[in-house]
Amino acid sequence: MKKIAxxxxxxxxxxxxxxxxxxxxxxxxxxxxxxxxxxTKKTLSPHTSEMAVIDGAHIHIDYSSPGVxxxxxxxxxxxxxxxxxxxxxxxxxxxxxxxxxxxGRDLEAGKYGFxxxxxxxxxxxxxxxxHWDQHGKDEYNKDQDVLRVKAEPSESDxxxxxxxxxxxxxxDDTGIIRMSWEKLSIQIPFKVI
Length: 193
Hints:
The protein contains one helix and ten strands, in the order αββββββββββ. With 193 residues, the protein is of the alpha+beta class. The protein has one domain (47-192). Strand 6 (110-117) and strand 7 (124-129) form a beta hairpin. The model is unreliable at 20-41 (pLDDT under 50). InterPro entries: DUF2911.
């Protein structure tokens, strides 16, 4: 009788251990798949920012950086003559804690949604809008624009895979905000006032 009870205990313990191992493996597999999907989503359009201090002005650009991924971007993924949130997901925003002069016009200290209208024929339209916290261009309203300027894109032989913003100092109180993606680049010269 003791032998039968011992055999039953061993069988139950063995079955229980096998089930726990199977559950652990299943759980680990599901976790690995979820991490992999999350990592893939993160690398497609990573969230990033660019900051600089020029003549005491702290300038900050916050954006999601989509990749080219063998696609035609301007005139393909992004239609000409249509508004674009100048990044992926949420609208790109630019913040300055001092007034800036851009193309002879003032941009007051503040936080702004940054939008672009690419054009195949003409200079591109660059827009600073008071509604900075929005998904894409879903809630864009032209009446909330505080500044619109024009800029000619320049073409490069090399590919910029991910949308990139840089802020470069060009003088004691001057700088350039540059947006580069695919083989095009836009420059926004500014002066701290």
